Amino acid sequence: MEDLVSQVIEICPGMYVLPDFADTQALKVSLQQVLEHSPLRQMQTSRGFTMSVHTSNCGTAGWVSDRSGYRYLLQDPLSGKPWHPMPESFASLASRAAKSAGFGHFEPDACLINRYLPGTQMGAHQDRDESDFSQPIVSVSLGIDARFFVIGPEKRGKSTPVDLSDGDVMVFGGPARHFYHGVRKLKDSTHPHFGAVRWNLTFRKAL
Ligand code: MD3
Ligand code: FE
Predict the structure, then answer these.
(1) Do residues 131 and 76 lie in contact, with contact meaning Cβ atoms separated by under 8 Å?
(2) Are 113 and 83 within 8 A, CB to CB?
(3) Percent of the chain with pLDDT over 70
(4) How far, in Å, from the CA of 107 to the mean position of ligand 2?
(5) Is the CB of 17 under 6 A from ligand 1?
(6) CA distance 3 to 102
(7) Is 176's C-beta closer than 6 angstroms to any atom of ligand 1?
(8) Is 145:165 a contact under the CB 8 Å cutoff?
(9) How far apart are CA 60 and CA 77, in angstroms?
(10) Which of 4, 48, 83, 148: CA 20 to 30 A from 64?
């Protein structure tokens, strides 16, 4: 049988959108299992602000933020136990997406789970807590639409909007790996399988 074709859109060098690449319903049960093991929580920034996004992790390493700063930890600080192992369906999705964008052999060891409710946003930032910046980052959107924005290597300047819907996957590597980016305040809407929620899974090689 012929393979189903999927589009790969290059927004700028190193930054790719794979529209409707992920079967999000197939990820839902695994997501629930991970969250039973390590429940959602709101992280604090080093300056003491509470992030509006609710967060958890799975995989060998999990990204955390508190008054001591940002870092990856092998244990969930809420339980002292290792994070839930990364579900095979998550890992294979991330690896296939990276490969489609030209990054072969991507084996993520960290999956950050972000939950956005209407009103949730994420300010402009860089992802720079990982050890090897030659490895890409893969992001999977589930549920309601969000407007993601990317600026560039400097924090200030013109931003480019990208609207992300359920099933859309983005890959960031090469020059885009250190670009400032964020998510605009989520608008109220509803999705047939997820309700008034957006989930984002961010896959990284952290260690
Ligand atoms: C561009 N999350 O968790 S994913 C994050 O939708 C984060 O939850 C957003 O930014 C979210 O750090 C956006 C898209 C994303 C992730 C990593 C990137 C874009 C990126 C790294 C470099 C450049
Ligand atoms: Fe980020």
Answers:
(1) no
(2) no
(3) 98
(4) 18
(5) no
(6) 18
(7) yes
(8) yes
(9) 14
(10) 148
